[in-house]
UniProtKB/TrEMBL annotation:
It comes from Pseudoalteromonas tunicata D2. Residues 1-21 form the signal peptide. GO terms for molecular function: metal ion binding; metalloendopeptidase activity. This is Extracellular protease. Belongs to the peptidase M35 family. The lineage of its organism: Bacteria, Pseudomonadati, Pseudomonadota, Gammaproteobacteria, Alteromonadales. It holds the Pfam family Aspzincin_M35. It comes from the Bacteria.
Amino acid sequence: MKKLSRTVFTLAGLLAMQAHAAQHNIDVQLNVDMQDNGNVLATLSLTNNGKGNEKILGWYTDLEEEAIFNITRDGEKVTFNGPHYKRPAPAEKDYIKLKKGQTITKKFELSSLYDFSAPGNYEVSYNVVSLDLFSNQSINSNKRELQNLSSNSVSFWGEGLAKGTANKGKPGSGTSDCSSGTCFTGRCSNSEQSAILSALAAADQIANDAVSYLSSHSASNPSTRYQTWFGQATTARYNIATGHFDAINDAIDNKPLTFDCSCSKSYFAYVYPNQPYKVYLCNAFWSANELGTDSRAGTIVHELSHFTAVAGTDDIVYGQAGAKSLAISNPDQALNNADSHEYFAENTPRQN
């Protein structure tokens, strides 16, 4: 195994570590190893150096659940090829408890979910941002702020490794059935196919409504609905929102959508953003209402917004309370948040 010993600390990373050392006393250390077979491994250690217990949202410590690393090649961001999920708002059970003085250490194969195939100067750091990162802010407070946790940054020259096996063996890769231009994989039953087509028609309805709403308003006249989910309007921000919903609506109307029914996770759904237009539906999708808050129709809007070919959104926060707080604290991030797009489209409770 080849040890990458050249470790550098960026100013931004140090400032983030210092800020959160004061607030949460979590020390984050990252090491990166390159194996002889070309795989790139990361070892992440989080230590609670505070006087009491800390609780960290579990999916921000799991690469299979979230894009927790920031990786660049020659200064350009390397795309995360893993899944982007729609989840319910985090509950207490979703947090990992770190006792005073405790360290948790995890290892990840970065080359399975990030592309290291091209030669260049790579820089890797652990960097997560969320309103819900630590379990210490009231979910009903409008004064919640984005929380960040960062590690040291590891830099190295990569010769161009064999491409990773991201998404290899993922569910639903078999044959598909199609109906009315929409296809199904993962053994969707007839009743599931009917439910999906009905939800897709409802998604078309709320996406059309969002497009009509945005075209009938403006940055100087955004009204309550826009400001609730996207915050203070400027011409640039309003144009971004309009472009996103135009693209979502176009995807529903004109793109070859595929829905997969093989996911057994408790989440609503997930997609691989660089693999349009396939949506994997999970358990919470089937128990959701067709319309309303966190609906089947809204889930489809949420997941379509993730595709880089559509709006390229991320998951900054989950749930209505978090999305409202994000609109107040950081309107630019709200425009990058998939749930914010979903709640704007669902419009429940209804706002004019």
